[in-house]
Amino acid sequence: MADYATTTTRRIAPGLYLKTSQYCAGEGATLRLIALHTSIPVPRVLDVVPGTRSGTWHLLMTELPGCLLQSAWGHLDEGQRHDVASQLRVWIDQLRIIPSPYGDAVCAPGRSYFLCYRCDEDNPTGPFGSVSDFQKHITRIFLPSQLVTPPLAEPLRVARARQPSIRFTHGDLKTHNLMFDQGKLSGIIDWETSGWFPDYWEYTSAHWPFCRDKEDIWHKCIGQALQHYPEDLEAETSLWMAQY
Q1: Is residue 147 pLDDT above 80, yes or no?
Q2: What range does the domain containing 114 cover?
């Protein structure tokens, strides 16, 4: 039985990291895809090999310069934070035009599964043949009884009346996944949540968990960097809140 839940990342030598998880084969493919299609700095893949535990893989990759943005964020002034948002927007715009060879499927490279914190952080999610299939899965996660109550019905109706396009997405744009060096972003890491998703997924994922203060400084930065999908955010927030 595969040990899906465990992910380890170790610095094994100067400039080298070894990551082990169920998702490392897919993450290696993603890193190569990003390097091919964009100017976004990402770790360079040196090797991907099967792990000793069933279902796991080892990803050997280079180190990016700097520190986690999480460590520096509280020390930046407003102008520096604006520069971070501007730089991130350029990168995300590049990411979103990477074409999918899989039509309308929601999946990682290789038409593979992905990590989804909103679905099941202990086991792989997907792939899905369509956005509709993916949305139904999300709804079942939060509403196992399939009971859509009146407060939920309208946000879901409005959001799902639109047919989203498929865009390549990182899926977890938080300060702990962004590198910062010498006053600017120096790269993006941890791509196991990435793949081709509905166009709103980057925006709504950046707000997860939905209980967080949407007026905090990081969410304001994200608001400058990403295209907004307020109806989809309201629908997903309503689904999440329905559990409580």
Answers
A1: no
A2: 65-241
Cα(41)–Cα(31) distance, rounded to whole angstroms? 10
Q: What would the pLDDT profile of 53-85 be if each residue is shown by its tens digit?
A: 888 999 999 999 999 999 999 999 999 999 999
CATH number of 82's domain = 3.90.1200
Residue 204 backbone phi and psi in degrees, to 5: -70, -35
On whether residue 109 sits in a domain, the answer given is yes
Backbone angles phi, psi at 135, to 5 degrees: -65, -40
Over 70: is that where the pLDDT of 215 sits? no
Residue type, 25: A
Task: Tell me, yes or no, whether 18 lies in a domain.
Answer: no
* Alpha helices per DSSP H over the chain: 24-37, 69-72, 78-96, 131-142, 150-160, 201-206, 217-225, 230-241
Q: What is the DSSP string of 84-136?
A: HHHHHHHHHHHHHTPPPTTTT-BBBTTTB-EEETTTEEEEEE--BSSHHHHHH
Which residue in this structure is represented by tokens 């793949």? 195
Residue 7 near residue 19, CB atoms below 8 Å: yes
Instruction: Quick: pLDDT tens for 170-213.
Output: 999 999 999 999 999 999 999 999 999 999 999 999 988 765 65
| Cα radius of gyration (the chain) | 18
Sign of the Cα torsion 231, 233, 239, 243 reads negative
Q: What per-residue string of b and e applies to 95-118 under the rule 16 or more CB within 10 Å gives b?
A: bbebebebebbbbbbebbbbbbeb
In angstroms, the CA 205 to CA 198 distance is 11
Residue 82 falls inside a structural domain: yes
